[in-house]
Design brief:
Elements lengths: L2 H18 L9 H32 L3 H5 L2 E9 L2 E4 L1 H8 L20 E14 L5 E14 L3 E16 L2 E16 L29 E2 L31
Parallel strand pairs: 1-6
Antiparallel strand pairs: 1-2, 2-7, 3-4, 4-5, 5-6
Amino acid sequence: MGIKTISAVVAIVLASAASTAGAAPAIPTTEQLDRLQHEIVRAEDIEAIKRLTYAFGYYRDKFLDDEALKVFTDNAEYHILNGRYRGKESIRRLFASARYRPEGATPKVQGPQQGILNDRILLQHTITLAEDGQSAKIRFKDWTQQAKFGVNQTYSLGAYEGQLVKQDGQWLFSRLVQCTRYSVPYLTSYLDLPMPDNQGPVPTFYPADPDGPDWYTNEGCHQFPNYGLSPKPHFVHPVTGEPYHKP
């Protein structure tokens, strides 16, 4: 059902309700219909952004790099592991690399791999649309289970902060920051984890490292047990309107 159709249906329902109640038909004003249409478009945009994100997760599961890249703008940035990848070809290099794929998976090969588990569950989406409806910000989590059959198995949790733009009616990521909160071998207790270096290693840049980022990122990630809410949330408190100030 299109937006104009929905608006017309709402107008008919309102008029019918007023008539049934014995009052004069209450026909919505043009301003009311415009406002309703505006809200419908925004609701549809939020659902479209969720769908885009979920699809991205499925493509990542199966190493479908070409499909995963289609959810990004040509000049998008991907921030991960203290590095920043700029542009689609750079992000493609990341997706195909061993630093992005689970341990034991074959790099640079697209499609599902025998004996490799790489399931990612994306959840807790918080989406903020710009008032003009042409850009948006998003935060979501990534619960991941990875394994190579008979060799290793891990689970991890991470958070993402992203920015999107609407191009020719289609939502695309223009920036994505990924932080891992923890990554634990399945049979390992949290108590046995080594204390992580909260700064993380300094990356070697491309082309010195064929899989390396283009440059540093200023997006710090706090790994368990170090505290901090990272990446920094873009949204304000839904009740008080206050931003989150703590590290």
